[in-house]
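Input (Acyl-CoA dehydrogenase family protein):
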Amino acid sequence: MVSSPKPPAFDPADPLGIDDLLEPEDLAVRDTVRDWAADRVLPYVADWYEKGELPGIRELARELGGIGALGMSLQGYGCAGASAVQYGLACLELEAADSGIRSLVSVQGSLAMYAVHRFGGEEQKRAWLPRMAAGEVIGCFGLTEPDHGSDPANMRTHAKREGGDWVLNGRKMWITNGSVAGVAVVWAQTDDGIRGFLVPTDSPGFSAPEIKHKWSLRASVTSELVLDDVRLPADAVLPEVTGLRGPLSCLSHARYGIVWGAMGAARSSFESAVQYAKTREQFGRPIGAFQLTQAKLADMAVELHKGILLAHHLGRRMDAGRLRPEQVSFGKLNNVREAIDICRTARTILGANGISLEYPVMRHATNLESVLTYEGTVEMHQLVLGKALTGLDAFR
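Output:
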């Protein structure tokens, strides 16, 4: 009788052995981003959050470009050409530091750079992508408007032809990176349908006032984009797409990163809760020795690692060219909801200390309230899945 090999020891940090699914190159990418975040973000992020600022964002962008984290899943033009799984692992590690840092990278790579890479002309790609991949130029993505969030088809921003030029007018709202961007990808109504435009932010008539008084994503630059008779040359338009297919495909790519990123915020909160439960004593012993606390930790671990497995599965499908937008909605809906629940449960384990910035839990929880809403609300992803399941459109 042949004896079965002895299983490895149980690893509390990886209870399902998910690391066994990763290649050495995947682990190297993960460790590089984790080490960068530990050195350049974690020692400072609580202070940034408390002050509501992200100082040195341009330097951080250049450093992220230096480790290949900007547009990392894109091919050519100075981009790293990493796999979807590797990009996802990077998002997880960045959001384990702070959602605002992952948002900086997501908007740069999955929205602004992705739009240029997929829909831009060759000259546009050569002009912008190498500098954006290096972090020398920061980009932003203008789709959401003050009165049109989940309904971008009715956006009011418009572009009109005047001779050989385009003239843009309108407003965009809740734009990450807006005030520090060198180029804005702006979507606008035209006589031919919705088109994307590359708007240098030093163009006359363009401004990007920063949005203040946020209680979420405080370590992140969030702005309004104002376009008052912004005149652009004919070649500013992205030539390869017309209609909502353009911005929605960019959003799907960015949402994929959120599927992973949300699990980073959840992991950070879970690890804080585990450590606290092992050291905090009440009634003569660590609170982690009580059944109710262990039940909470077990439930949190189950949802955390199920979410990571889901993200990994979607990443493999993306690498195989088989990932559908409905599946991305599935991942974003599940993982962000579960991440918020994990953070809230972690807060209960930490008690009053859970609201202190000495611990990351409340910072992650409040950040995730924004992540839950942006790039598709819970309700919109529920309706995407509902339509896919029934074949019936409930959007209108």
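Strands lie at 139-142, 158-162, 165-176, 183-190, 193-200, 206-207, 222-233, 281-282, 285-286.
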